Amino acid sequence: MLKLWPVAAFSLLLAGCGANNSPAQVQSPGAPTSSSLKLLETGADVMQSRPPIDAINTYLDGFHFYNGDQNGQMEAHHYVTVLNEDVMQAVIYDGNTRDARLMGVEYIISERLYKTLPPEEKKLWHSHQYEVKSGTLIAPGLPEAADHALMKRIVNTYGKTWHTWHTDRDKTLPIGIPALMMGFTADGQMDSRLLADRDRRFDVDSKKIRAQRADIVAHPAEPGANAWQQGEVIQLQRTHGGGEHSHGQTHFGPAEQLKQP
């Protein structure tokens, strides 16, 4: 299994290393939280269970860019749940503080499952080989041995990522429609200032991490992944009709469909 570290121990490590050092990137409008709402929040925290949230056991920090717009780059804080040996899911935030904004989601599958996908579906996914081998993807707080074991399991996986709040440009509220995101695949693609800022906040050296992961075996990316490199850019566009979300002949107004510009 990918859950390589006891949750309690991991939580202690996370509290000491790599948490509360990346504040939210936006300030949302709204009145201050009232005392009555705070009381409700406290009561719910004590009385309600949250199994899906409790199942989150791994924190990964990496970078994404908009499919078709490599200049639109941002840091992404992934909080990951391991569903089974071949499937993980992550909620993605713009920071690692309590008020971090939920940016989107990423589904992560094994190379074995990726090979079973239809050709058109494969175009929505990106590889993780470079992210792992380059040291740009990190697991804050994990000891080197645990980090190395985790990255060996991630290196040949594939991710499908949708961002619903584009915090690099929408600084108050989540505006517009979701965007398909991609991961970097080679040196020179990523803004070096973005990486340097991340390394400074987490007190890590991505070059040193790259060297430590030199022995991790990365397979060549499977055909179909990282389709943007072959000029196949897919993003949502507004259109009329129900698209893939329609049921029968009833339409409820504008919807979003996958289109290739």
From TrEMBL:
Pfam families: DUF1264 (PF06884). PROSITE patterns: PROKAR_LIPOPROTEIN. Residues 238-261 are annotated as: Disordered. The keyword Cytoplasm does not apply. InterPro entries: OBAP-like (IPR010686). Residues 1-19 form the signal peptide. Keywords: Signal. Transmembrane segments: none annotated. The keyword Electron transport does not apply. This is DUF1264 domain-containing protein.
